[in-house]
Amino acid sequence: MPNGPKTESDLKEAFAGESQANRKYLAYAAKAEKEGFVQAARLFRAAAEAETIHAHNHLKALGVIQDTRSNLHDAVTGEVHEFKSMYPQMIADAEEEKAAEALRSFTFANAVEKVHAALYQKALETLGEPAEQFDYFVCSVCGHTVELEAPDTCEICGAKGSVFVRVH
């Protein structure tokens, strides 16, 4: 746990920056791969992994990572905030400014955050009970997340089930 408010603020800022760098570098890696720049893609992925390590270290120093029950509760709270407060305002802003790509991105994310909240809530309610192990599938277009198997068509964005990625 940090010793003072400045250190706590610095850790939060560092966590946000490292997290954003991780995601940005993974997007850069995908683009480099598509353009045939394999070595640049590998470098971006390696740096992204390092940024993840930094972000996790900052979370640990903040004392954010708790037991699984607490972490699930925190995840539910965060997802509910996103789909009830954060994204609706962003959607309204994008509509007002006629920012079609941002509107699409926010709308997909908002719908998926509701799904995530429900999945986390289900996991929280059944934590500790005997459970079968199964994979999740994530739509590579909108992020929709489902249990057990990919659907034929994504119910959020309409993409074909073949674009879903298995996560285990």
Explain this structure to me?
- Helix 1 (5-34) packs antiparallel against helix 2 and helix 3 (68-96) packs antiparallel against helix 4 (100-126).
- Helices cover 66% and strands 7% of the residues.
- It is mainly alpha-helical and 168 residues long.
- A hairpin with a 5-residue loop joins strand 1 (136-139) and strand 2.
Keywords:
Rubrerythrin, domain 2; 7% strand; 3 domains; 3 strands; 4 helices; three-stranded antiparallel β-sheet; 168 residues; mainly alpha; Ferritin
Count of helices? Answer: 4
State the order of secondary-structure elements, H for helix, E for strand: HHHHEEE
Outline, from the CA principal axes? globular
The third-level CATH topology of the largest domain is Ferritin
SSE diagram, text form:
Layout (H helix, E strand, L loop, with lengths): L4 H30 L3 H25 L5 H29 L3 H27 L9 E4 L5 E3 L16 E4 L1
Antiparallel strand pairs: 1-2, 1-3
Helix pairs in contact: 1-2, 3-4
Structure at a glance:
The protein is mainly alpha-helical. It has helices at residues 5-34, 38-62, 68-96, 100-126; strands spanning 136-139, 145-147, 164-167.
